[in-house]
């Protein structure tokens, strides 16, 4: 019996809506025991963001 390798996890994508901030998105996707500041940094790195400024319609990748 040969076990298949697990499929690579695909990042989720969030479309920025009016009123959304990187902090609010990070708060929504953070695990219960995860520091939101760490999630904000991870989102910035994954999306090549220099700041936390977002525009409506931006697509933010949320790494698994």
Automatic annotation (TrEMBL):
SMART domains: LysM
A Pfam family per the record: LysM
Domain LysM per the UniProt entry, residue ranges: 13-63
Transmembrane segments: none
Protein name per Swiss-Prot or TrEMBL: LysM peptidoglycan-binding domain-containing protein
Native source organism of the sequence: Pseudokineococcus marinus
